[in-house]
Amino acid sequence: MIEDSETIEEFLAHGMSDVEEAVRKAAATEIMPRFRQLAAHEIDEKTGPHDLVTDADRKAEEYLTAVLGALLPGSVVVGEEAVHANPLTYEAIRGEAPVWIVDPVDGTRQFVHGNPGFATLVALALGGQVLASWTYAPALDLFATAIRGSGAALDGVPLRSGSPAPDRPLEVATSHPDFTTDDEKRALLALRTEGVRTRPCGSAGLEYLAVARGELDATGFSWEAAWDHAAGLLLVEEAGGAHLTRAGEPFRITGGNTLPFTAARDAATAQRVAGLLAGGA
């Protein structure tokens, strides 16, 4: 395990730009040519009308799966669309090999409707710990990266999330009620209190970026899919933020979390939001 970690550290010392290039190329060749150009036959429903997949999702994931696996021999790829086709693929996140966690188009609904608020998310993890992440919003021309222990950056400029201003309400983006259980709804409703302003979340990856940039104070999310959270959670951590589940524990990409959970600009805000979520259950 130590040798594996050293190998990944060596890879990250020279390979961050190679991954960034792969993410940019996937977007340039498979995603952006289809943005606002999708035909009806290129869009499908997965679990319902709010859970969409497009040819851009599929083609970008196929490209990234091939390139990322070649960049780091011995690694495996867990992509959203591959898991949809074969749920057992998800188990690799709990395995011993380095794993690339890929969401080819995070915010597919926005993408389908011509909204630029979507992103490609890639994270590299080992043993349940995220070691590096790449967040790319091609329609907004934003590229954020993070390396565990080395900080986060947006377009090469270091990111610091800071702390919320004490004289204004917390701004919190939350899961849509349609995607929550009754128990989770009660927990999220507890955020509708004095000193907190909530709104529905958009692309999870871009909400995490907003927290890391200090533009959003916290999130309140009710689902565990690692491709939505892995990249953003590391980005927030390395920008100075923190994340906690309703049980007061850091979120685990391997699952088994007490939901909902929050990612916030600083530890104090994470504790405050997690406490409200716990009180509402």
UniProtKB/TrEMBL annotation:
Q: Which cofactor does it need?
A: Mg(2+)
Enzyme Commission number(s): 3.1.3.25
* Catalyzed reactions per annotation: a myo-inositol phosphate + H2O = myo-inositol + phosphate
- Hydrolase as a keyword? yes
**Keyword annotations:** Hydrolase, Magnesium, Metal-binding
> What residues bind Mg(2+), as annotated?
80, 103, 106, 228
**BP GO annotations:** inositol metabolic process; phosphatidylinositol phosphate biosynthetic process; signal transduction
Database matches in PROSITE patterns: IMP_1 (PS00629), IMP_2 (PS00630)
Q: What class of enzyme is it?
A: hydrolase
A Pfam family cross-referenced in the UniProt record is Inositol_P
Gene3D superfamilies membership: 3.40.190.80, Fructose-1,6-Bisphosphatase, subunit A, domain 1
- PANTHER family recorded for this chain? INOSITOL MONOPHOSPHATASE, INOSITOL-1-MONOPHOSPHATASE-RELATED
**Name under which the protein is recorded:** inositol-phosphate phosphatase
Q: Which organism is it from?
A: Streptomyces flaveus
Lineage runs: Bacteria, Bacillati, Actinomycetota, Actinomycetes, Kitasatosporales
